[in-house]
């Protein structure tokens, strides 16, 4: 009878373990990162008698989570790419809307400015026409400066988000190291006896970290998880955490507004992580936006500003004012020195300004006086015609583009890149959903299935209890015979 009671008891214990696990699955069906768990049962060692082996019931061997490292890695890879495109798209959309706007873009201001030049060419002796030209020039300068200011604001926001993202990466790395330590304490029996809920928490932290920057992981023999980024730079090794930091640009010449990602070393120094090594995640998207689009857009806008000022000044300096004198006057502030470096070109648009305020100083004339049968001063428009001709002159991009077409190329460059990023984001969203669906097919909780399991394990529990009840009845019968 004792053997029958023992077998019934093991059945009750096994059924109870299944009920506990199933209940745990149901209550965590909506918990982010939770992997469905199953109870693994095995038979107890059988009892040998002369007639053969008699079973001794069952026991709980382990509680395992339904987890596939390959499927999980697919989700991480797709998630990192999707977050990269998402961060890139959010930033580039602002630049695209700014440059392509019909009212706030540069094209209308350029057209109005050269319309003012043509008015002076038509009536070179008109002081109001000359004053109107200076006003349109100031509007053009204001438009350059406004575009530069807005691009600088976008740059500052992007740089601030880079710093914030690095801080979040460091925070997640510390949390993963803490979980590693807790898992090491709990899994004292070895990696085969897993702390499933802690493993889910750690995987969830890795997934959140992976949204910020693409990472790879290696499970160590002690159950801890090492996390790497870039080309293999360690963020977490066991309970040891490496710290990322954002420091000033060390290139020559440096960009005072650009931050570099560095990895702190134990000795108090730091190692530069080139932007090309940091891919995926929001951080990768923000770095790519800065390097591929924002800096290029600012440089191209600066090149246009430098070219407009230099070409217009060169022609204007060769003319004569309303009085037929004062040659060599610059119409715009000389910003040609900004062209020497990439950092300078990015700042040139903000320095674009009008150099003259007196309308009589506009050099519309092509002759200093009335000698040799030429008209001079206000009645001569030869230089104004040359200034007006700059509107259609191919003086940019290797003498292949006008000012307007160069700006159109800039708008097209940003627009095409924005479209490319939008398509990439939608594609990665679809791939991410496919990867999640495949993972959830294995690891997700199906409430209908779990409800059916509850009924099955309840019946199993009741059957095991019935075995014990029968054993008790038989034992009573034996006792009654002995009396």
From TrEMBL:
Its main location: other. Residues 441-480 form the Flagellar basal-body/hook protein C-terminal domain. Keywords: Bacterial flagellum, Cell projection, Cilium, Flagellum, Secreted. The keyword Secreted applies. Residues 93-332 form the Flagellar hook-associated protein FlgK helical domain. It is found in: Bacterial flagellum; Secreted. InterPro entries: Flg_bb/hook_C_dom, FlgK, FlgK_helical. Belongs to the flagella basal body rod proteins family. This is Flagellar hook-associated protein 1. It comes from Aromatoleum diolicum.
């Amino acid at each position: 009878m004792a053997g029958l009671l023992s077998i019934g008891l093991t059945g009750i214990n096994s059924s109870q373990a299944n009920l506990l696990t199933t209940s745990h699955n149901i209550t965590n069906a909506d918990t982010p990162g939770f992997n469905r768990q199953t109870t693994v049962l095995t038979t107890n060692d059988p009892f040998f008698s002369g007639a053969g082996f008699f079973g001794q019931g069952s026991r709980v061997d382990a509680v395992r989570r339904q987890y596939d490292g390959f499927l999980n890695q697919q989700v991480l890879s797709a998630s990192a790419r999707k977050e990269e495109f998402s961060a890139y798209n959010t930033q580039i959309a602002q630049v695209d809307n700014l440059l392509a706007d019909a009212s706030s873009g540069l094209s209308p201001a350029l057209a109005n400015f050269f319309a003012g030049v043509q008015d002076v060419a038509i009536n070179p002796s008109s002081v109001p026409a000359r004053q109107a030209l200076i006003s349109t020039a100031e509007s053009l300068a204001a438009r350059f400066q406004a575009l530069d200011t807005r691009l600088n604001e976008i740059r500052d926001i992007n740089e601030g988000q880079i710093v914030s993202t690095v801080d979040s990466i460091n925070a997640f790395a510390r949390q993963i190291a803490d979980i590693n330590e807790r898992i090491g304490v709990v899994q004292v029996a070895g990696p085969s006896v897993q702390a499933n809920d802690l493993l889910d928490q750690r995987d969830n932290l890795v997934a959140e970290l992976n949204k910020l920057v693409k990472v790879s992981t290696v499970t160590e023999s002690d159950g801890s998880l090492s996390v790497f980024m870039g080309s293999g730079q360690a963020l977490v090794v066991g309970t040891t955490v490496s710290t990322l930091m954002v420091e000033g640009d060390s290139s020559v010449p440096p960009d005072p507004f650009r931050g570099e990602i560095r990895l702190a070393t134990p000795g108090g120094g730091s190692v530069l992580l080139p932007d090309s090594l940091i891919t995926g995640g929001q951080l990768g998207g923000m770095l790519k936006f800065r390097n591929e689009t924002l800096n290029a857009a600012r440089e191209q806008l600066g090149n246009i500003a430098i070219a407009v000022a230099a070409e217009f000044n060169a022609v204007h300096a060769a003319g004569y004012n309303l009085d037929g004198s004062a040659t060599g006057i610059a119409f715009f502030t000389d910003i040609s020195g900004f062209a020497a470096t990439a950092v300078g070109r990015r700042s040139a648009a903000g320095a674009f300004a009008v150099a003259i305020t007196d309308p009589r100083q506009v050099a519309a004339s092509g002759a200093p006086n009335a000698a040799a049968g030429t008209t001079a001063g206000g009645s001569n428009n030869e230089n104004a015609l040359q200034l007006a001709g700059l509107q259609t002159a191919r003086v940019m991009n290797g003498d292949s583009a006008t000012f307007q077409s160069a700006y159109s190329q800039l708008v097209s460059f940003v627009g095409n890149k924005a479209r490319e990023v939008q398509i990439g984001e939608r594609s990665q969203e679809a791939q991410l959903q496919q990867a999640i669906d495949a993972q959830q097919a294995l690891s997700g909780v199906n409430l209908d299935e779990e409800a059916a399991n509850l009924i099955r394990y309840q019946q199993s529990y009741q059957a095991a209890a019935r075995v014990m009840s029968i054993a008790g009845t038989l034992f009573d019968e034996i006792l009654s015979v002995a009396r």
